[in-house]
Structures are given as structure tokens and as C-alpha cells.
Description:
By secondary structure, the chain is α+β, with helices and mostly antiparallel strands. The chain has helices at 3-6, 10-13, and strands at 18-22, 27-28, 42-47, 53-57. It has a 4-stranded mixed β-sheet, with no helix packed on it. The chain is globular.
Amino acid sequence: xxxxxxxxxxxxxxxxxxxxxxxxxxxxxxxxxxxxxxxxxxxxxxxxxxxxxxxxxxxxxxxxxxxxxxxxxx
Length: 74
């Protein structure tokens, strides 16, 4: 399932909050990537101690995210 499809599910919409990680790293601020990560594959979903939904996606070129014209590749 892609992250974009997950955002349309009841599980996502009913979550108290969400946390998004890329490649198992520390959570990222989705505000900086509002749609860029939607086509990436979700590799993990779980709940954090505070009830937030924690989502992990895989991105093969995450280290280049600051490059001009970057496009996330899954």
C-alpha cells in the first residue's frame, strides 16, 4: 500500500495523530513533503505509546531530498 492510499483509510483518519518515518529513521515533518511521499510504499504501521499512528515508508533516494528538483523514489 502506498502512503497516499493509507491517508484515505479510516485507520489514518481516525488516528489521534500521525508520525511519518522514512527508511526507519527519525520522524519527518510532513509539512515539508505534503505530496512528495504519497507514492512511496508503506513498510510498517504501528501505534506509539501516546496513541499516535506511526507510519514508515521506504525511499531509495532519501539522502538527496535537499537537491533541487528531487523526486522521491520507492
